Amino acid sequence: MMEGRRIRALVVDDEPLARRRLRRLLERDPDVETVADCGDGSAAVAAIAEQAPDLVFLDVQMPEIDGFGVLERLPAGRTPLVVFVTAYDQYALRAFEVSAVDYLLKPFDRRRFDQALQRAKARLAAEEAAGGFGRRTLALLEELRARASHCERLVVKAGGRAFFLKTDEIDWIEAEGKYVRLHVGRESHLLREPISTLEAQLDPRRFLRIHRSTIVNVDRVRELQPWFHNEYRVLLRDGTELMLSRGCRKKLAELLKVPL
Fold first, then answer.
1. pLDDT over 50 (residue 94)
2. Residue pLDDT, tens place only, 204-256
3. Residue that wins the pLDDT comparison between 93 and 167
4. Distance (Å, rounded) from C-alpha 85 to C-alpha 55?
5. How open is the CA angle 131-70-2, to the nearest 5 degrees?
6. End-to-end alpha-carbon separation of the chain, Å?
7. Distance in angstroms (rounded) separating the CA atoms of residues 51 and 46
8. Measured between alpha carbons, how far is 171 from 207 in angstroms, rounded to an integer?
9. 143-184 pLDDT, tens digit each
C-alpha cells in the first residue's frame, strides 16, 4: 500500500476475456483498486489522463494504437508504471526484463501474475520514496520503439507456398548473388533480397554481418577459434563453421561480451 492509500490500477487489452481476467486477479488484492478498463489505445490514453493511475496493465499488440503508442501520447511526467501484457516470444521478453516493471507473456497463471504485481508494488514504493515514478517505464518505451523498427518475421516462398518465418529462428544467413539463403536448423530457404537490404531490417543486437557474404544470429554462436593470419572462425551450436572478417571482430566481441 502507498502511504495509506490503495494502488490505482488500469487494465488495457483489446480482448474482453483478457480484461475480465485481469480485473478478477486484481480484485484479490486489497491493496489495489481497479479504476477502469479499456479495450483500445485511444480509450486508454483518455483514461490515464482522467484517472491518473499508479499502475497500468497494458497490452502491447492492439489495433490502431498499440501499447507503446499509448505511452507516446501521454503528457510528459504523467507516465504511470506499466506491466506489459504480451504474446511476444521469450527472446523479446529477455530484451526488456532489465528495464520493465514486468512483462507478462500470455497465457500466464495466477502465480506469475502475483509475482508481477509484487514487483510493481515494490517499484512504486521505491520510486515514491525517491520523489517520482515512471522513469524506468520511459526507458522501456525507448527499447520498444527500437524493437518495433526491426523485422521479426519474414515471408518465405517455397514449394508453391508462402509462410512466415520468425527471424529469431534463423541460425545464419548466406549471400547468393542478389539473393540470400536463410539457414534454419537442417533446412534452408532462399529469399529474393540482397544481403545488405535484409541486414538493415534485422535487429543489430541479435544479427551481425561477420563477413561481406555472411550474417550470423549471435545467440547461435558457441565458440570463436583463432585462425591463420590473426583471423577467427565462428563455430555455431550445430557445428557450422563461418569465417569472421577482421573488420567485424570488435563488434562481435562487444555483442558476445568477450575479448578478442
1. no
2. 888 999 999 999 999 999 988 887 766 789 999 999 999 998 888 788 877 77
3. 167
4. 13
5. 30
6. 50
7. 8
8. 9
9. 555 555 577 888 888 777 788 888 999 999 999 998 999 999
Grid-cell match 530457404, residue found = 189
In order of 20, 29, 81, 103, 136, the CA distances from 84 in angstroms are 16, 19, 10, 5, 13
**Helical ranges in 53-103 per DSSP H:** 67-72, 90-96
Are 133 and 81 in contact by the 8 Å Cβ rule? The answer is yes
Residue holding cell 562481435? Answer: 252
69 in Cβ contact with 44 (< 8 Å): no
CB 184 within 8 A of CB 169: yes
Burial class (CB in 10 A: 0-12, 13-18, 19+), 73: middle
Q: Is 77 left (phi over 0), alpha (psi -120 to 50) or beta?
A: left
Element (H, E) at 12: strand 7-12
Residue 2 DSSP class: B
pLDDT in tens, 31-76: 999 999 999 999 999 999 999 999 999 998 888 888 878 888 887 6
Q: Grid cell 521469450 — which residue?
A: 90
DSSP state of 204: T
d(CA 175, CA 195): 6
The total number of residues written for the chain in this structure: 260
Helix (H) or strand (E) holding 115: helix 110-129
> Which residue carries 526507458 as its cell?
139
What b/e readout covers 13-46, taking b as 16+ CB neighbours within 10 angstroms?
bbeeebbebbeebbeebeebebbbbbbbbeebbe
